[in-house]
Design goal:
Radius of gyration: 32 Å
Structural class: alpha+beta
Strand content: 5-15%
Main location: membrane
Oligomer: single chain
Membrane topology: Multi-pass membrane protein
Pfam families: FtsX (PF02687)
Shape: elongated
Subcellular location: Cell membrane
Helix content: 55-70%
Keywords: Cell membrane, Membrane, Transmembrane, Transmembrane helix
């Protein structure tokens, strides 16, 4: 009996092939995006654990400048070698841009120094072959494939130079990731700078570590190379990706639920007939279970394949972002792992169980005599919408309770998820009630029919409209959050960067450079900012000096301050603290704070300032403070403000020539701002991609739901054609209903998306990075998004409408029968 019943029930998909496509679409794409995000996150975490940031196995310690971009002098490295530290080797790196405009990091190694180390010969990667020549560029197979590079090829740079030939390396070598490696002599040809960016050291005793720290030049520190520290730093980034992946999975499940509910609803008359013929409920239940299992296997398999493919396409962007933000070198060699399949199986199994449980239970428990009534089918679905609205109200109450609890990152994501779910569950109910209201009070018979039929069509389109609305809400929410974040960051940078040019010099030249600046008639004003690091807990706090000039005061972007903070700051034992550090230490303006020596107890917080983009905490102290001798042991930056109408290029050229300054030691204000915005846009490009893909999934779901609706109502449309209603009127009915449903969903999604963006900014961003910012609205962008989605939806639904116009009434009736 099982085979006969299965053949009867599964034959439904032969008559409605679009439904099987809709079922697999929701499940496959939902699983694909989830697996893609999980693959990227898990792969990155494994990279951190393996220490792929550099070669931490043979070199557990690294000497590096406190400030990114500073150099370690060659004299210091030579002194280390003369003192017997043969286990220390230099590494240099520069940014190069290819002819196509790609930013690449080229890392130079001292081949001879590396090969003379026993630890590197035993534990290090086997990549050096001096017979190939010092100009060889070592690159991973994965990076070469991504950029379509070939073995032995040369890379053309934007300045007309070229580097190469390329040597492709296996994925387990040093070159796994997005960096290029070569001999350090190649870097000297490409850039005139001297010194090194880092010095890596093998095993060091405690006495040797203290000796190196004591002799290290100002602004240089010794730390471990273990990149496990990257995991907490990048936690928020990966958490945001995972949230987007889960959201896409939920949207996919809504599409799956829509298709399964529609499929089982349309088979109710058949099930009623089978029940009346004596088929047991248990047999029907097993047929449905087997059907769900087959769908799960196919959807899970396709989803994993597409997910890994998607992850491989997004991984280079994610790796570049993590390298820009945190210096992480993520391997591009990614392979499917059974853990990813197991996670997706558990989630998909749970999702399918939740999505198919109620439609299946309703089908099996309903009396056979009632299953054949189409009025009951529609009425039962409206009853479900009422229960969904009631569940949305309960979840809203839960959301309000959670909102008053202590804030945290997890609470923020929970609030976003519950808010989105409340909106999605309540949409079909309010949409149906609105259509019924218009049908009841409109005077036009055609409009009454239009809205009544639109309300009835929600039995087929309601869940897809939920997914569509949720995707639009998330798209608007992410768009607002990213736009507000970008606007706040750009405004903050424009205020912070008050000088025209920033110069970073070696400590020995700073006194002479300062006197030279004071003597130049083109320079209106210059000042120096000192920086040093203070070890605190498991990390470090950056300590920065702040002068008394008007420009330095105006560069502060204060969140909160004392009334006379400027006087207190420069005359008393007071400091300014960054917003993220204040949140971490739980201090407010007026609080006393105790920091490790040389600070000690009794320091008062006179102000809290915004410091976007700084992953570490920071405090500012006055140039009149007694701590300045200690801070000046670190590094210093000059800020130069030129007189009105002066072109700085000539002055900078003279300064470079006089003090032998490299190009990377001089930064123009507009270059800093432009670079920061490029990194920002790259950071959120993956999130934007996932948000767009989620919206595409929802669009496809509503499109296929519309197709299923039109196919299921062919008999009704054919009868209406015989009653004298033209194909154009029916096309208006189908296309107009789709437009009204899309417009209602979009307008419903707009306030929901703005509420989500508010939660993302004030809770998620705050506890992810420690920053707060005001919400900025982008009305024109919202209009473009809403209009584009509705136009896309109408374009997607044009095919069934076109079929209605082109087919004759006789053909439609024959096909329906």
């Amino acid at each position: 009996m099982f085979g006969t019943v299965a053949k009867a029930l599964w034959g439904h998909y032969r008559r409605h092939p679009m439904q099987i496509i809709l079922v697999l679409l929701g499940l496959t794409l939902g699983v694909a995006l989830l697996v893609g995000v999980m693959s990227i996150n898990e792969h990155a975490q494994q990279s951190y654990k393996r220490g792929e940031r550099m070669f931490s196995n043979p070199f557990p310690y690294v000497l590096h400048p406190i400030n990114r971009g500073d150099r370690i002098s060659e004299d210091f490295y030579i002194s280390l070698r003369l003192q017997g530290f043969k286990q220390c080797v230099p590494v240099d790196s520069i940014e190069v841009m290819t002819k196509e405009g790609r930013d690449m990091r080229l890392t130079g190694l001292d081949y001879i120094a590396f090969l003379n180390l026993d630890s590197f010969q035993k534990n290090g990667p086997r990549l050096f072959d001096l017979n190939r020549g010092n100009d060889t560029i070592w690159v991973s197979h994965e990076l070469a494939n991504h950029f379509s590079w070939q073995q032995g090829e040369y890379i053309q740079l934007i300045n007309g130079q070229r580097i190469g030939p390329l040597e492709l390396m296996s994925e387990d070598s040093l070159t796994s990731g997005i960096r290029l490696f070569t001999d350090i002599s190649v870097l000297r040809k490409l850039s005139p700078h001297s010194g090194f960016s880092q010095i890596y050291c093998g095993k060091l005793s405690e006495e040797e570590r203290q000796q190196i720290k004591h002799q290290a030049q100002n602004g240089v520190t010794l730390s471990r190379t273990e990149s496990a520290e990257l995991a907490p730093l990048t936690r928020a980034f990966h958490l945001n990706l995972l949230a987007m992946g889960l959201l896409a999975f939920v949207v996919g499940l809504f599409i799956f639920y829509q298709a399964i509910s529609l499929s089982l609803t349309q088979r109710q008359p058949l099930v009623g007939t089978l029940r009346q013929l004596g088929v047991y409920r248990s047999v029907l239940a097993w047929v449905i279970i087997v059907e769900m299992a087959l769908l799960l296997i196919v959807g899970l398999g396709l989803g994993n394949v597409i997910g890994v493919f998607l992850a491989s396409k997004l991984l280079p962007t994610v790796a570049t972002t993590l390298n820009d933000l945190y210096g992480a070198n993520i391997s591009l060699a990614m392979h499917w792992q059974w853990e990813w399949g197991a996670y997706s199986l558990l989630l998909a199994l749970s999702g399918i169980g939740l999505a198919s449980f109620w439609p299946s239970l309703r089908l099996l428990r309903t009396e056979p005599s009632r299953l054949a009534k189409s009025v009951y089918v529609v009425g039962s679905l409206f009853t479900e919408f009422k229960w969904q609205a009631l569940l949305a109200f309960v979840l809203l109450c839960v959301t309000l309770v959670i909102n008053v609890l202590p804030e945290s990152l997890e609470q923020g994501f929970l609030l976003v998820g519950l808010t989105l779910l409340c909106g999605g569950l309540s949409l079909p109910f309010f949409m149906g009630k609105s259509f019924q209201f218009f049908a009841r009070f409109t005077r036009s018979a055609k409009l009454t029919w239009f809205f009544s039929d639109a309300s009835a069509s929600l039995s087929f389109r309601g869940i897809a409209a939920m997914a569509f609305m949720m995707a639009i809400a998330v798209n608007i929410g992410m768009e607002t959050m990213i736009g507000s974040f970008r606007h706040a960051t750009e405004s903050w940078l424009e205020k912070r960067l008050v000088a025209d040019v920033y110069v970073r010099s070696e400590k020995a030249k700073m006194r002479e450079l300062n006197l030279w600046m004071k003597s130049q008639p083109e320079i209106y004003k210059s000042w120096v900012t000192w920086k040093n690091e203070l070890e605190y807990g498991d990390g470090a706090i950056e300590v920065v000096s702040l002068g008394t000039s008007i420009e330095e005061r105006e560069s502060l972007v204060l969140k909160d301050r004392q009334a006379d903070f400027w006087t207190v700051f420069h005359t008393e034992k007071s400091l300014l603290i960054s917003e993220s550090l204040a949140q971490r230490l739980d201090v407010n303006v007026g609080s006393n704070i105790e920091l490790p020596p040389p600070f000690g107890p009794g320091w008062q917080v006179s102000g809290i300032y915004l410091d976007y983009g700084n992953p570490r905490g920071q405090v500012m102290v006055s140039v009149r403070s007694k701590l300045i001798p200690w801070i000046s042991n670190g590094s210093g930056d000059f800020a130069i403000l030129f007189k009105e109408g002066i072109e700085p290029d000539e002055v900078i050229a003279r300064m470079q020539k006089t003090f032998d300054l490299r190009d990377n030691q001089i930064k123009h204000q507009h270059d800093i701002l432009e670079r920061a915005m490029v990194i920002f846009d790259r950071t959120f490009s993956v999130t934007n991609t996932l948000s767009t893909l989620t919206l595409i999934i929802a669009l496809c779901g509503l499109f296929f739901a519309t197709l299923a609706t039109e196919f299921s109502r062919q008999r009704q449309y054919a009868l209406l054609r015989f009653l004298g209603i033209s194909g154009r009127n029916l096309a208006f009915l189908g296309g107009g209903q789709l437009a009204v449903i899309g417009l209602f969903s979009a307008l419903f999604a707009l306030p929901l998306g703005l509420l989500i963006s508010e939660l993302l900014l004030n809770v998620v961003i705050k506890y992810s990075f420690g920053w707060t910012m005001s919400l900025t609205y982008f009305l024109s962008s919202y209009a473009i998004t809403l209009v584009a989605t509705i136009i896309t939806l109408l374009a997607a639904g044009a095919w069934p409408v076109w079929r209605l116009i082109k087919r004759s009434a006789v053909s439609s009736m024959r096909e329906a029968l």
